[in-house]
Design brief:
By secondary structure, the chain is mostly helical. Helices cover 61% and strands 5% of the residues. Strand 5, helix 22 and strand 6 form a beta-alpha-beta unit. Helix 2 runs antiparallel to helix 3 and helix 5 runs parallel beside helix 6.
Length: 573
């Protein structure tokens, strides 16, 4: 059923549709199996993301692996229960890792909790302001550039665990500094750990090709690596690091955390506005992109504003349990659909599955090798990066390539906040230039009118002392300069200037100011300006600015032939 725009603008979670009488036992069975499967897929990801998001030596309310699990449970439940997408699976995602590490490095874990709450508030404001549809207007070179940059940054953060490098000298967050760190510590590479990580990565990549898609490759790799290391005692004999050896035996508590009030500081809040906005934008982009993917798989239509509100609520609530930023996850959402999930119930089951796992099996989590979890994240990063777009750099327009490479480079070398800000500014400037380039300002000669196929021009004559110019395209501040340049080339001011604006769809304040300057110049030389064919938006703008009184109501006409008639009247005066 197609919903009206007004209905979609309200906060209406898709879970309510489950209770409208069309949800049966068979639907619940499908959602149950899908939720169980996605819960198993989310387990190694949540563990890996929690570990990757917290630098060594940083004080946190719970060990890093637990933070990822808690976020997946709480945010996953809230996003499914309150979201505007029927099959969305929410939780921590790899895209947040670079920005989370940056915030923790500068402001500690308390700063991250504060920034996450702020990001949640921003997301809710975006949802209630009906800005869900605006996210899709973020230029593709920007999103592609920072997405691939994030993928490279994730691989860099996992290099230590993947190679089995464990030294007292912690790996720096910055990309260039980390490369130097890796070069200095190449002799410290643990070969058994590297081989184990490589084997896990190969299992994750090739397991689905064996036709056993019901069992996730990441689970197979994690459990297989855990059993091998435990059975052969490689933790001691081969020096392979595990969750237990790095974070302690009780790395994952066998219960959910109690609610605690995050630390808030007004001075720090000002410093966190930029990072919080970056978290909100990244979360909005990823969740709505995931929702679009889900729409394509289920032939449904998501409510983007409700989805943003749900994402905001999840990010406000998670910090009260010590959690990380969360958003909709494309891979887990796709897996949910492919395994039969058709309603928010599957997402709720996914959260309950993770809760049951930590309640029943948390004491064995300490045996999971760090190499296996790093392989999971390297696989996620490899799938996340838009490498094929990088191959197209030579064939795409130079301006788009510059934006993409700049955003990518800034994301990798500096951080996501700077990359998004610079990328958006560059994209906006290029957009303005392109719009300006499409606008044409040209003089209309009598010979043009004789040859014109346009009925309004055909057979018309331009009286002596009248100059006619045509503006084609949006009349914005870039195009205003074109008009001024064209008119400055006039050697002798005519008595009357006619501006044909019937092909101008929009006008801004700069164009209005340019028009005012032109009229003042003509009136100063005893001339007049006539505007013809104004559309609603430009005409409304002129009226609100009091421009009608400046030019004279009689000099605003609907058609070109009326403009010629008005010109003859002025000449006859």
């Amino acid at each position: 059923m197609v919903r009206s725009t007004a209905a979609r603008s309200r906060f209406r979670p898709r879970l309510l549709e489950v209770f409208n009488g069309n949800y049966g036992r068979a639907d619940f069975g499908n959602d149950l199996m899908a939720g169980l499967t996605v819960g198993m897929i989310a387990l190694p990801l949540a563990l890996a993301l929690g570990i990757a998001s917290v630098p060594n030596g940083i004080a946190t309310p719970f060990p890093a692996p637990a933070l990822g699990i808690f976020t997946a449970i709480i945010a996953g439940f809230l996003i499914s229960a309150l979201g505007g997408t029927r099959v969305q699976i929410g939780g921590p995602t790899a895209a947040f890792i670079p920005i989370v590490l940056l915030i923790i490095e500068k402001h500690g874990y308390g700063g991250l909790l504060m920034a996450t709450v702020m990001a949640g508030i921003i997301l809710m404001i975006m949802g209630f302001a009906k800005m869900g549809s605006l996210i899709k207007y973020i230029p593709w070179p920007v999103t592609s550039g920072f997405t691939t940059g994030i993928a490279v940054a994730i691989i860099a953060t996992q290099s230590g665990d993947f190679l089995g490098i464990h030294t007292s000298d912690p790996a720096p967050r910055e990309f260039i500094a980390r490369l130097h760190w890796l070069a200095n510590h190449l002799p410290d590479v643990n070969v058994p750990s590297l081989l184990l990580a490589t084997a896990c990565l190969l299992v994750i990549v090739y397991w689905p090709r064996l036709g056993m898609k019901r069992v996730p490759g990441s689970i197979v790799a994690m459990l297989g690596a855990t059993l091998v290391v435990a059975c052969f005692g490689w933790q001691q004999s081969a020096g392979i690091s595990t969750i237990g050896s790095k974070f302690g035996v009780g790395a994952i508590p066998a219960s959910l955390p109690a609610i605690s009030w995050p630390y808030f500081d007004l001075t720090m809040m000002r410093d966190l506005i930029g990072p919080a906005t970056a978290i909100a934008l990244l979360g909005a982009i990823e969740s709505l992109l995931s929702a679009v993917v889900a729409d394509g798989l289920t032939n449904e239509r998501h409510d983007s504003n409700t989805e943003l509100i749900a994402q905001g609520i999840a990010n406000i609530v998670c910090p009260f349990f010590g959690g990380l930023p969360a958003t909709g996850a494309i891979a887990r959402t796709s897996a949910n659909v492919s395994n039969g999930g058709r309603s928010p119930v599957s997402g709720i089951v996914h959260s309950v599955t993770l809760l049951c796992i930590i309640l029943l099996f948390s004491k064995w989590a300490g045996h999971v090798p760090m190499a296996a979890l790093s392989a999971v994240l390297v696989f996620v990063a490899l799938r996340m990066g838009e490498w094929h777009e990088m191959k197209r750099l030579r064939t795409m327009p130079l301006s788009d390539a510059v934006v993409m490479v700049t955003t990518f480079s800034l994301t990798v070398i500096f951080d996501l906040v700077i990359a998004v800000e610079v990328g958006m500014v560059l994209a906006a400037m290029l957009f303005i230039k392109r719009v300006s380039d499409t606008t044409e300002v040209s003089q209309v000669f009598e010979s043009d009118m004789l040859e014109s196929q346009e009925q309004l021009l055909s057979g018309k004559e331009i009286p002596e002392g009248v100059l006619v110019y045509r503006i084609f395209g949006p009349f914005l501040f870039g195009a205003a300069e074109k008009m001024e340049d064209a008119l400055e080339r006039i050697e002798q001011f005519p008595k009357i200037l006619i501006l044909r604006l019937n092909l101008v769809s929009a006008m801004d304040a700069t164009a209005l100011n340019a028009l005012e300057s032109v009229i003042e110049r003509f009136q100063k030389h005893g001339g007049a300006v006539i505007l013809s064919g104004l559309h609603r938006q430009p005409l409304d703008m002129l009226r609100k600015a009091g421009f009608v009184n400046v030019i004279g109501r009689a000099n605003l006409v609907a058609h070109f032939d009326e403009a010629l008639t008005r010109a003859k009247e002025i000449l006859a005066e």
